[in-house]
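User: Show me a protein chain along with its predicted structure.
Assistant: Here is one chain, sequence first, then structure tokens.
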Amino acid sequence: MRDRSIARPWGFAAALVLPIIWGATVDCQGAPAEKLPPFADVQRVVQAHFQAKPDYKPGDIIARGDIKPVFSALAQIGFEVADAKAILESVPADNDFLVTSLRSAAGRRFMQQVARYPMSYDRLDRLGRLPHGRQTVRDLIKGPDGYKMIDYMTTAHGGREMGKMLSKAPKGKDFNAPTGRIYTVDQLLKRLKQSYDKAARQPLSATGGPT
């Protein structure tokens, strides 16, 4: 027959320890991911990176080479961007026609004129893909009032109607719609916020890292 004097202490210990172990297991599985830095810190890192570039001005077009170091800088403050590759692929390449055109001497002046218009880079990007479109973009950049065409295309009713007509041209489909690419620091920050919010919702794995 089992000695009850031995069973009682073990029963008491089990009653005390098991809820603690169970609670720790539940907490581990259901707790939020390791604490992320405030998103304000993410913004500061990104903005400081671009402000340190001598030729950069707010609203300028960005390229993949510009943002590659950003991911390392964000990792250093505790934000590992899980979908960094997808974000990088959404940014125009360094040798993209639009990037190289807008980073010429005339292109930079033009860029500062059109940056304030909504979806100006989307329009220029789509325009450059049309037959003879690249030459059209070059002409707009070199012309003294080329920015007025982008103003018209992005803000005027007639410009939207023009876009509908251009949508019927070869490679002109959805001319008035966003391209889905990331052209500016503001767009990059919006995209990073999506990744940040997703990371904040991720539970911890049994090893303590995000699942």
